[in-house]
């Protein structure tokens, strides 16, 4: 018999692995520790779980005014279900989807990956539970499949202008790649970011706590570039399960002619390819033009928008959805 229930604490996610909720952790954004960091920012968790005698599944969510959304913020590259593969996990997800009708009229899940079938799996679970589901791309993810290449081999395939920039400017800065957390270097990163063209950090304390934890676990790759002793560019990467994740990068506009960001990015690529031997580099979400210079493939990220037709609040958005389709 399947039991479905809710929790307002992310602590219950710690026990999922013991109940068979999937094998391993596909990404940093699937771990209980990540959701704990999100909860500490003020987000109120709604952890929807289902279990039977053999395994368990969960959706890490939050809710407001009858609308349910993923427990995530802009640092999250992806959001997906936490469930074992196969028919057993599918049954648990369907039970969760059916139970969620008691908590809200609309569930909007994003950015859900498609390459691991998460978007299809969640769509199927909610449709089987009676929701009206619309699926559409909401973002893109730039990636580099390394395909066994060395950094030198990868670098030969980069655009000529990028390679020329590195050749001309590399000696103008000194770069350092740390595999542990360093408070002084992190302070340099925060100062650079504050003075850069980037928008203000949403939750800087959360990002620092994440970097500290990743450093303690040996997964952090913290890079800094200095010119005449002044930190002018900094980046935060992590490496896990043969994947390098590019979380944050910034450089000082006042030192833009040095192209320190290019030199530092190249150094980190070289480290994760030649030292960490990753299979994939993930540049997160967003279609910024500079990402295409470094990456080779693009993957979609999806929005899975679910409306319960039995609830009156769903009727206006369902009508709009139907009209939009009719005018397409």
UniProtKB/TrEMBL annotation:
InterPro entries attached to this UniProt entry: Acyl_CoA_acyltransferase, BioF2-like_GNAT_dom
Top-level taxon: Bacteria
Pfam families: Acetyltransf_6
Residue ranges annotated for the BioF2-like acetyltransferase domain, each copy included: 163-291
Protein name, entry field: BioF2-like acetyltransferase domain-containing protein
